[in-house]
Amino acid sequence: MFRVAIGQDSHRFDFDNNNKKLVLGGVIFDGPPLKGNSDADVVLHALTNAISGITGVNILGETADRMCLEEGITDSSAYVREALKHFHGTICHVSFSIECLKPKITPRIPDMRKSIANLLDISETSIGITATTGEGLTDFGKGLGIQCFCVLTASVNDAGDI
Q1: Fewest beta carbons less than 10 Å away: which of 43, 70, 88, 148?
Q2: What pLDDT digit, counting tens, does each position of 74-88 carry?
Q3: Residue 94 contacts residue 126 (beta carbons within 8 Å)
Q4: CA-to-CA distance for 61 and 106, rounded, in angstroms?
Q5: Full-prediction pTM beyond 0.85?
Q6: SS3 of 58, please?
């Protein structure tokens, strides 16, 4: 049986924070960081939400807040790994659509695919990443933050094997 889930996340830029890095898909980019308690990696947050859509176990929220605020875990890859603890199946494909004016995403897509593939233990060819400015119609396309959607396709044996 196949299951498909969508995850989404968005954060505004924190133009006043010089102590944090901009991280997308586990890759450090040049530019202002995103606001959030964690590294605010919208790509990995969208992925975490998509995995939660398959398992029915929400990680972002109470679990991630505990990990971040109480345990000091700010690396969003830890939230993906936490979500994967509840997932039992095979990830077939993951597709990301990122909306922002900056940074330029396309030159770093190979780095992001490699990072996400390593995190999920799947082939880089099973990961698609696209980017758009959305013609500047939203705050993301106007340069105020970044939004990411993730669609995850997974194969599970039956409803009890998630």
Answers
A1: 70
A2: 999 999 999 999 999
A3: yes
A4: 30
A5: yes
A6: coil
